[in-house]
User: Fold these one by one.
Assistant:
Number 1:
Amino acid sequence: MAVGSLMMASVLAVSACSGSSSSASGTSGSGSTQTPATGGTVQVLQAADFSYLDPTRGWDGGVNAFYRLVYRTLVTKAANNAEDPNAMVPDLAESLGKVSDDGLSWTYTLKKGVKFDTGAEITSKDVKFGIERSWDPQIGIGSPYLKQLIDAPDDYQGPYKSGALDTIETPDDSTIVFHLKEAYPEFDAALSMPSGTPFPEGTGEGDEFISDIVASGPYDLEKYTPGSLIELKRNPEWDASTDDVRKAYPDAWKFSIGLEGATIDERLIAGQGTDINAIAGTVQTATIARLQTPQLKARTTKAASTCLTYMGLNTTKKPLTDVKVRQAISYAIDKSAVLNATGGTQFATVASTIIPSTVSGHTDFDLYPSQNNAGDVDKAKQLLTEAGYADGFGMTLDIRPIPAVQRQAEAIQQSLKKVGIDLKLNVIDTSTYYETIGTPSQQHDAAITGWCPDWNSSASTFIPPLFDGRNITEKGNNNLAQLDDDAVNAAIDKAKAMTDIDAANQAWGALDEQIMKLAPIVPLNVENRIYLPGENVAGMITPSGDYDYTIMGLKDPSKG
């Protein structure tokens, strides 16, 4: 996902990225997994606003889940209750893509009768136009996959500035053909990203979609007050017979934004009024001890995530340009203290690798071990001395104003103080955090962030977005370390070209260790998700820790 598909604790899903894992298990509260009835309004309580309503700009866990309610793409991820929730399935297209023998061309045929909320039928030209928007320098700051994969001139800047892109062909209103730079076996999955959303030709220039949308999914925007409220109503132009994924049980959705995490938990525990129909992000650390009563236990859902929380180190900033300095930081950090700050073992597991164990391609290793994960001060000091920084230095860490993140940052601050590093904390508003740290000119020395795979059947959406130096951009940059290493780039190319996914995943696991020798990030932990849905919520199925709005609703729509 976009930078930091991890929005843990502030929204419903963690990282710039959605993705699920059949290997991840969860326990759901009594009755919450039952099939919803039709009707009613689901209440969503959250701290932070969504990044963008425009899917070409936005790309993080919380907003990606929201996009599935209002937008459709040629291909999408299967619903959480599918036999294989990792699978890619046709959405606007009649089938998955038909690929040419050389792997360079992918052809799709659109279903008949799919429409925008305006009543206009969605054509291949609308799909082409929506995808072309990804190249616009102002707008295209979301998912980078399509503009990285589709062949395009180096100076192409999207439809508003450069016109149509010849390498996306639309021979008729139902057919669209994509020509790629190189073979990419997972192109179906790339098309499932938000940047694959169609829009009517000529719309969406500049800030047009900052506060409005053109819906293609089952819901449309009824009301939007930035930072406060989003209300969705049914889209009468959506035809359920064309959509095998979205069940659209509720009549409406109400997102209440800007609430304190503790307030959200109190409301869910009390379960009064419309809060019996409410869902929210993972509960606050301080709340977990209160969920032990039989009534609350029956409502609690716990699931392992596929998302990594980490501290990115800006390798372009001195002295972080020196690998020994970065390795010293990796040794110095007391990960057990960071784990406690996160909420303890109930909430997370200490990480030493880039790829979590719930993602295909994971390999177990720890290049910077310490007793009880408490940090190795002596080894860190030795490396700093070798690098010429025996007396330490100062650096700045970017963080969000979320209590758990602030506690994590303070634990890191105390760890680095032991080896002479003076760490200052720079707090950035959550709504602009990922845009800010994703702009290299505004980025400081380090940042606490995270990443979720956009699809979990391979590690191809974990390593390249974070470490391919050729994809560092002036805005919307996901390679926070700004690592541009020739050997890493070459290994990425080799793994991406493999048509055997199992072999590719072995390559990704090996590359994980190769990258960690360079210490561009410090893996901190992999968080669990602990949810307390309202007692009237149904469809609560979380194979990878993430909600799937498309199958959620209420047990009894007349309540609340």
Number 2:
Amino acid sequence: MNQPIRALEDQDEPALLRDQFRQLLRYRALLASGVVVGLLGGGWLALSGEESYTSTGEVVVRSAASDPFAAGASADKGINIGSERQTAVSDSVGTVAVATLARQGDRVEVGPLLSGLQVTNPPNTLVLRFSYTGRTPVLAKERAQALADAYLEIRKQRTENSIANMVEGYRAQLSPLTAQRDQLTEQATGSDDVAGARANLVVAISELSRKISELRALDTTPGYLTKKPAEPTGPTGAGLPLLLGLGGGIGLALGLLLSWVRLVFDPAVRSTRELVRSLGAPLLGTLPRERASAGTLLAIGRSGSRLAEEYRAVAFRLAYDPSFAQRRRLLVTAPRGDGTGAAAAAANLAAAFAEMGRDVILVEADLRTPALARDLGPAVQAAPPRWVNRGELAWPSESRKNVDVPGSGAFTLIAGRRTDNVARALTSAPVGVILAAGDRPGAVVIVLAPPVLSYADAVALFDRVEDVVVVCDPREVHRSDLERIREIIQAAGGSVLGALLHPGRSRHERRALKKAAKRRTGGGRPRRGSADGGLEYADDPAETLGLRPFDSAAGHR
């Protein structure tokens, strides 16, 4: 049975990813919680935030030019658009805009005014886009208009100031030259040197005058407001649907992250792959959830039962397994818990083998809390009262019962009985004789043992019942438990044939089982000394009528 293990090891990467995704989907509560938190956060942001409106205007920046229509004239001559963008958001522009808005009745400080302004520059253009966000459409429009006008005014003032400074500089150079020219004119001599010096002064004075004239003739228009800010028709930013969508997406991502963290630190078996790897044995089958009939554990014999068909499939698989076919002895146990799932599996496998025509003996090796005969209900045929021979014969003597499976046959049940020394009873010679019945042709011996990790009773049987089937709920068993079970079974000389998974119990079922266990251990009348020195409780009407407790050492009274 190593082929399924190799098949799981050879899974490709997409199969592993699908398996991991299915494992994440196991934590639906975390995923749903993340989505709910995201939706609540998005809704809170949408409903608690104030509505804002954005108005946008565009300004084309140009440089001063003497003749903008001349050939070769360029509007971007000497313009650094990055510097202009910094100027547009400067305090000087804000100060001019504050004065303008104050005249309109909108009193605001420079800092709060500039906090709502955003200036951007589309690539490869000389356009500055002024976007202002305000509480109302009118406020956004007026402030965007005021800031754009303030920028153009500041830029025009700076250009005019630069021209005025240059003109003053040229005039400062022109005054001494004019004085020297006038002085040379007064000398009025026929000397060639004086005439040459006067001519040079005239040329210099003419050049400076020409430059002053050109500066005064410059077009100082800083730019044009090509797109005036308009009143926005609707609020800006993400609306309620968009915020809910974003919140849901972020919440789902948060839920997946929490699920992944939970998956990493979850000690339980997360997939069939991990179960097979931890136990070192293949998966024999997965039992479907099905409402059991009242009073019996047997699913074999019910018409149209999916659970019965799964048990039959497992029994056929075991029947053709070389290891089991050689020894025909099977031990059924559970890792921990009350062993109800293992008891149901053992009884139904016994019924399935009986249906194949095998001579089946089912041995209940649970000598601490035996309940298989009672749980099988009406299927167990009437037998002499146990109190007749109590105190004279030890288990398993006089414990044989016949279990009739309607329409499938019958098998022999050796019911468990409370015993003072469980280890001695399980290793006794009569038990060895019963287990040796598996060597007869056509015979099958199935042993129901207590949970391996709860008691050491099953370990005493591993050397004589080598083949073991572990029945567990994958959501309740840990990977470390399966690894420990494998080590215990291998150390005792046994081998694990496979695992059988049963569906987990609901909260109501677990509560009912706890009440039933409490009734078994705390209700009824005292019967006889138990293995731990206390009193056992009668489950037979003949014993319940007695007034005196039985003493295992002194026999019955």
